[in-house]
Write a structure and sequence with these properties.
Oligomer: single chain
Shape: globular
Bound molecules: adenosine-5'-triphosphate, magnesium ion
Structural class: alpha/beta
Number of strands: 10
Strand content: 25-35%
Radius of gyration: 18 Å
Number of helices: 7
Helix content: 25-40%
Strand order of the largest sheet: 6-7-8-3-9-10
Largest sheet: 6 strands, mixed
Length: 235
């Protein structure tokens, strides 16, 4: 579903991505790990079309997004990709419900439909009671679940998350991780998750290890004897 080839990116004289090739299948949960400064966020932003690469191509289901105009690209992004960040980034002056509805409005959904969809998502997240609370009145775990609901409102095919559980305690972290798997199992969503959390990386289908702007190796969650992890050594 996502095919990226030869992605390069520099900031000034610093080459941050040195040629990344990556294929992500529909329904896969892929984690991206690596030391601080390895280029994980840069890669995710480029995959999510929030930033442009210097070279290389990105295709979503055969659509070459690198060739879309700025307007078409933001439409594409709003409809197909949901984002979750480390610090929820909810708008403080709006309620949980309104925060979830905003991307639906941007996509042109009517008010009643957007509200219905947002309420369904709040229910799925066990947050119905919190619908009319502002972010400052929600716990960290609740805020992050609202942020996930917001990412889901336009029915995206893929969720891209940058250290989504980085600011959560272990219980909320565990719940958020389970939610990702539930969403994949129930709705076939695809996930690309940048994380420093080894527990999360261990349970994702595939882990991409990024180092110095290159893919160092890939590992699989539960390799069976027939399905050995793909590493440089046994490729
Ligand atoms: N907009 C920018 N301008 C200049 N340099 C940048 C910019 N964004 C990132 N960098 C640099 O690119 C490198 C990779 O940054 P990136 O944010 O992708 O790392 P990361 O792997 O996500 O690290 P962390 O785990 O700390 O979040 C770093 O050296 C960073 O300082
Ligand atoms: Mg980062």
């Amino acid at each position: 579903m996502i095919d990226i080839k030869g992605i390069t990116k520099s900031f000034g004289s610093l080459q941050v991505l040195k040629g990344i090739d990556l294929h992500i299948n529909k329904g896969e949960i892929v984690s991206i790990v690596g030391p601080s400064g390895a280029g994980k966020t840069t890669l995710l932003q480029i995959m999510g079309t929030l930033d442009k690469p210097d070279g290389g191509s990105i295709e979503f289901d055969g659509v070459n997004v690198s060739s879309l105009s700025t307007n078409k690209l933001s439409n594409f992004r709003n409809l197909h990709i949901g984002f979750v960040f480390q610090f929820h980034q909810l708008l403080p002056e709006f309620t949980a419900l309104e925060n979830i509805m905003i991307p639906a409005f941007i996509a042109g959904m009517g008010r009643s439909e957007a509200k219905q969809r947002a309420m369904e998502l709040l229910e799925f997240m066990n947050l119905t009671e919190r619908a009319n609370h502002k972010p400052s009145e929600l716990s960290g775990g609740e805020k992050q679940r609202v942020a996930v609901a917001r990412a889901l409102v336009n029915n995206p095919a893929v969720i891209m998350a940058d250290e989504p559980s980085g600011s959560l305690d272990s219980k909320n972290k565990e719940e958020l991780h389970q939610l990702f798997f539930q969403l994949r199992d129930n709705f076939g969503l695809t996930f690309v998750i940048v994380t420093h959390d080894e527990g999360l990386a261990a349970i994702t289908d595939r882990t991409i290890h990024l180092k110095d702007g290159m893919i160092e190796r890939e590992t699989n969650a539960t390799p069976t004897p027939q399905e050995q992890p793909i590493t440089k050594e046994n490729e």
